[in-house]
Amino acid sequence: MSTETPGIDPLLALRAPRDPACDVFLTGTVFLDIVFTGLDSAPVRGTESWARGMGSSPGGVANMATALARLGLRTSLAAAFGDDHYGEYCWDALEQGEGIDLSMSHTVPGWHSPVTVSMAYEGERTMVSHGHEAPAPTGAAGPERGAAPASEPAAPEPPASEPAAPGPAFPRCPPRARAAIASLAPGRAEPWVATAARDGALIFADVGWDETGRWDLDALPDLAHCEAFLPNAEEAMRYTRTDCPRAAAHALAERVPLAVVTLGAEGAYAVDGRTGAAAAVPAIEVEALDPTGAGDVFVAGFVTGTLADWPLADRLAFAGLTAALSVQEFGGSLSAPGWAEVAAWWQRIRTCAGQDPAALERYAFLDDLLPTTARAWPLRRAVPTIGFRQ
């Protein structure tokens, strides 16, 4: 469950009666994440490793949905949920705990939830996942929650040489929304993306590693519908055949209105293809405990700033800040910061000795967003676990 946050609506000044009820729509696969923390090193074959900590939380697309909801955006998620205890937990955690609209989601009788086990150590993580592709929903809303479970069929295992991730339940007709978030893949077009764009949604997209090795922008058909494209530096350079992330961002800005290239520890660089304006913001130096979900949090922060019509540099700074706050906590969705964490960080950082005034000025735009008082730093995050009853 999310931590208590101030009641901040970043879009309050822009809302109008005829606006869509949904700020951001997304779809994908929800995993149950089981995260082991407190490992001193990678597990060694043939031995047993004990972790000093463990937690469970919704993962996969739930990382992005949670990050958006905690920043005050009205978020709608379309996903398949198993009718096992894992699926019930993930549904309740997202709907009741985070306030995410799951009216486009459905429960699949007899289908077990995809699971990822993540081991965090030395600032990195190693993951093992398992799941089967979810059957397509039979109706617009899918089976009701709480329906009697069917006996689980023997789902075929994917071939060993071609492991398949569980497929999300793509909506036939997404809800009207200010924005939608898509994950692009070579040679694949998702009809809902074109529908959402046609209905006025701004499409924000990231992309994964191109296993084909072709790195062809023309093989990403949904890129034509995008408002913003947010690859990392390696992906951007491969797709544009450049040897510099900034040159890659300018090349991508010829294809999309907004090109944002994440540079890891060096921050991010963005180019507005409409105006030619560019912005660069360095990363905030933090002690990273677990990078799981940091990319999703960055996108959520950038979407928030874009929908709120902030200047480009402020969007980058805010996205980088939220990502930096997330890697200081373990887990994916539960590490996503809300406004309470942002406010506490801003109050604390201004009282720390030795801060660069110019660096602080970069985040001065937060003064107009945050309450004058904030809870003390550090904040206690939610406990990621299953099984405790209220």
Poorly predicted parts = 1-5, 140-144, 146-164
Number of strands: 14
**Mean pLDDT across all amino acids:** 85
Report helical residue fraction: 10-25%
Order of helices and strands: EEEHEEHEEEEHEEHHEEEHHHH
Strand order of the largest sheet: 4-1-9-10-11-12-13-14
Distance between the termini: 12 Å
Helix tally equals 9
Given helix and strand content, the structural type is alpha/beta
Radius of gyration: 21 Å
Shape call: globular
Strand content: 15-25%
Largest sheet: 8 strands, mixed
Put the structure in a nutshell.
This protein has 390 residues and is an alpha/beta fold. The chain is 24% helix and 20% strand. Helix 1 crosses helix 6.
